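Honest question from a wet-lab person: if I give you the sequences of every part of a complex, can you actually get the arrangement of the whole thing, not just the pieces? Trying it with mine:
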Amino acid sequence: MWRALRRDRLALISLFIILAIVLAAMLAPWLAPYPKQARGASNLSERLSPPSRTHLLGTDDIGRDILSRMLYGSRPSLSIGFLVVGMAITIGMPLGAIAGFFGGWMDQTIMRITDVFLSFPALLLAIAISAALGPGLRNVMIAIGLTWWPWYTRLARAQAVSLREQTFVEAARAIGVRNMTIVRQHILPNVLTPCLVQATTDVGSAILMGTALSFIGLGVQLPHADWGNMLTVARMYFAEAPWFAIFPGLAILIVAMSFNLLGDGVRDVFDPRTRRRG
Amino acid sequence: MNQSGRTDEPEDTHVRVRDLTKHFVQSVGLIRRRTRVVRALEGVSLDVDRNRTLGVVGESGCGKTTLGRCILRLVEPTAGEVYFDGVDILKVPLGQLRAHRRDMQIVFQNPYLSLDPRMSVLGIVGQPLHTHTSMDHGQVRDRVVELLERVGLAADHLYRYPHEFSGGQMQRIAIARALALEPRFLVLDEPTAALDVSVQAQIMTLFSELQRELELTYLFISHNLTLVHYVSDTIAVIYLGKVIELGGAAQIFDNPLHPYTEALLSSTPALDPDLRQRRIILSGGVPDPANPPSGCAFHPRCAKATDDCSRVEPHLVDVGGGHLVSCHL
Amino acid sequence: MDQPVITVRDLHLHFRTYAGVVHALNGIDLEVYEQEILGLVGETGCGKSMTGLSILGLIPQGGEIVSGDIIFKGEELLGKPESYMQNVRGRRIAMIFQDPGASLNPLFTVGQQIEMVMQRHQRASKQEMRERAVEMLGMVELPDPPRILRTYPHELSGGMKQRVSIAMALSCGAELLIADEATTDLDVTVQAQILDLLHRLRDTQGVAILMITHDLAVVAETCQRVAVLYAGQVVEDGPVDQVLYDSKHPYTQGLLQASPRRDAKGKPLRAIAGTVPSGLAPPEGCSFRPRCSYAMEICAQPPPRSSVGPLHTAVCFLYVNQESK
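Yes, you can. This is the full assembly:
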């Protein structure tokens, strides 16, 4: 599989970009040139200065170094992406697998509940939950996670329905393996692959949603840095200090696109039809 | 060698099937939901003697695959009885059924599909052992190695995955899995259909050896008449869910009584020029099992059909020596 | 001996894969003569389907013909532009496939599809095409052709679909029909009908047939000549009676010994030891050597084609001395 991925240049580049950003996020305290400013210390004398040798990406409205704030801000943004998708898979995938494999009333019940959640536009639902829970990173993650799991349930269910007709599942029944064991040993591992493929792209979307929520003030609160809340403020100063908005915006764009391209690459690798003849 | 389809001594009969019937009910149509009944099996009765092979042959849609699955109760039959050593497993409550599964196993047609691609060989062959016994991992591993060697694979294949093997090897893995719990009865559902002829030869040889060594009873299902003749002691010919002829392998081949059996025999291409017969070319194809013809199901394609044939359904009659046929002629 | 309809000479086909270059065809030599059925027989991976596809220039992505000739009625097909090949396909050389529905679009009726083929290759009025379509359907022995013209593929059985495919294939007067495992997925009674039909069509339509199959018995009953393929090469070819009953190449003999026969019940089926090579790194010498019970020192070199009987050749060192006699 890795050999196949190597062929897809775009996906490979995206993977490196993502790894680089994750690394940067983890090493932020050591990489940031002005860690105190990143955490909130003000520096009014240098407010809104353009990129220079002392401040590589310029400063914001309170004079804080944008580069440092972006490095620190990448942490909540990225963690929203990974944790939310992780939560969605953990909840949604087993539910979908059980619904698809057992069918009947279990299937009906689970899917009805799923349908209810799916009928709300994700962003609005996230906003509503977030507003109800109050601002803050933790609540944002809960909110987005609650809107995201239904997609995985639906995906896992579709896979499980086709899997349960597979001969190797029939073989397990012929051996006398108990149903829940079949779900655990045969259904879940085979359902994981399409979910992971979906997850790769979804991390990018989750980051976008997290950023959107922060942008309207529901996420990470100032003075803590987050790409979204940086944009909230940057918007007001766009004419005088465009760099304030451009850099975080660019970061969001690159990260989201990288996950999308990586997701495309991963999907092509796993789709037997696009695989090259052996 | 016991040539007939029936046996006089009941202890010799390992598996006895009586009036097995399976109807699949489908609801069709988007607006007006109609029900469509697919009569996959209708009143099938046959016996399989201990340590012998009963071959079941028929074309697509005849119900032979369903037969194998119903006998093992992988699919719940609509009616009928299946006796294993005297016990009707169709009446056994589901909880106890699991225990019976140890004695009867199945090898599926396509090894590419019957092995979970995400499980290692150790996992696949060890699964029956973990399910039914309390053996620990070390004991399971030892037993799996033993099974692999018996089917002609090496111990170092333990940690490999199915896609690393050829079709023939994968089928050996499936056979090892089927033998794990020491069953006495195996349903072989077209086990070599997906394999090349030289690999088929290896697998068929393996089946013979195993039958001798382990005293196994086989139900061999296939559409390939030549292969069925080669491997079976007795043969049942199935058409549209009914057994239309039953007898010893030699009886069926040298003296086919049912017109369908004759047509099947003559349609099967033969390598040996001396055995090539004048083809009986049937018209049309196999009818839809949901809509079988009246009376004898074969009459629309039968060159010798009479008026009676379209009205009255024939039954299996013993014409001597254990050779049974279901035909008005 | 008349000129062959098609000659394939020393055809080499390579595929680029993740694991390396696969030599799918390693020097194919065969001829199909007028009004004969040539069987191309071999096991999985021997290259028989690829040979058929190469003739029509329909090689999948990643494949490339690196050397050889394909001469059809005096014209070299390799190297011809796609536009030329598109005129050949369907009109002069046609193909039917293992899946009877493969050539049929589920969205159009049978009649529409036959007409589409004719429209592509011929100039004729609607009326003429319809009449010809009815004629073709009658030729493949379908009952009530005008009604069949209006049916959709999913309403037909496998055997009927294959007949329609044959009708479509021959509708523009093809000179060569390639049948790629065309009866493998059909019931044996239906297979008998189709093989019978192909025999008759060979005579009435004057078409040559390249029958690709893995089933030796089908070859025995249907073909006049046969070519046995192993690892991308023709290892033995000649009249069916000779190749099957007086086989010379060890692989052919092995195949025959492994095939169950009606008259050989109880006799063990002798399998061929070893496995088919993957085509990744073909050996210098004979590709069958690792599995051959007659292997000799000299087999490390590529064996030549030797004559072993009238019009019967085998690629094996066992027969090299015979020639020099």
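Two things worth pointing out. The interface with chain C takes residues 59-60, 166-168, 196-202, 204-205, 208, 223-227, 229-231, 249, 253, 263-264, 266-276, 279, 281-282, 285-286 of chain B (CB under 8 Å). Chain B has one domain: 10-325.
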